[in-house]
Amino acid sequence: MTALARPQPRILPGFSLSMGITLLFLCLIVLLPLSGLLWQLGQLGPGDYLRVMSSERVLAALRVTITAAAAATAINGVFGLILAWVLTRYRFPGRGLMDALVDLPFALPTAVAGIALVALYDRSGWVGQLLEPLGIQIAYTWWGIVIAMAFTSIPFAVRAIQPAIEELDRDEEQAALTLGATGRQMFFRVLLRPLLPSILTGIGLSFVRSLGEFGAVIFIAGNMPYETEIASLLILIRLDEFDYPAAAAVAGTLLALSLVLLVAINVMQNRLQSYLRSEG
Predict the structure, then answer these.
(1) I want to staple 52 with a disulfide (CB 3.0 to 4.6 A). Which of 80, 82, 157, 249 is the partner?
(2) Overall fold of domain 49-279
(3) Using CA atoms, how far apart are residues 145 and 128, in angstroms rounded to an integer?
(4) Per the similarity annotation, which family is this (predicted)?
(5) C-beta of residue 259 within 8 angstroms of C-beta of residue 247
(6) CB-based burial, 66-84: b 16+ in 10 Å, e otherwise
């Protein structure tokens, strides 16, 4: 006669209680603040919303923000992959320090990062003094915005790609070399293909993070309307003018864009993973 199986102890509470706690936390921390934004946005009719968003200053701010975020994301996509590869595949003196430096933008206040970037790239800064004779100016230009966004969002790219590199099967790499694969074939077919979902996640998070960056950018951007003014700063200006519906319109647009991108990235990542599994 077999002994009755003992029920396994639950480390966490059951599904109902866990789901209730999760939903309560999401409502208090995420949905409640967003509901305030949506309430302010609801004060605008469709015509008023279009009037706010079609103004030249708002369109210029959105153009500067989106193009700079796209450029910063492209930079992070390339160098994030290289950094993640070096940190994962090689052992060298100072590796731990380099690994910690990748996470520094997470801990560093963005205002401090902005001040440091200005001190570095201003005409009187270390790098600015070298670039000025060449006619190159970084601070208070569009390129300054790109650098600030890349600085604050690079950890998202590295940390998303790094675990995928750690899971790569080195036996497949050796097999490919044994079968006579060239360096190009090795990179694109053996290494890059399984990393694509993680790269997509990393650059997506980097782009969304760059869209909402504020502290580091306003110090180095110069904040000139129609040239280096970002959308986040324009929201603050509208709040200072007590034009809450206009501020909510710009903020709601950025929120909607970020949400659409995150959903699209999740869908593309799942489909890409399914495709790679089926191909494998």
Answers:
(1) 249
(2) MetI-like fold (1.10.3720)
(3) 15
(4) Belongs to the binding-protein-dependent transport system permease family. CysTW subfamily.
(5) no
(6) bebbbbbbebbbeebbebb
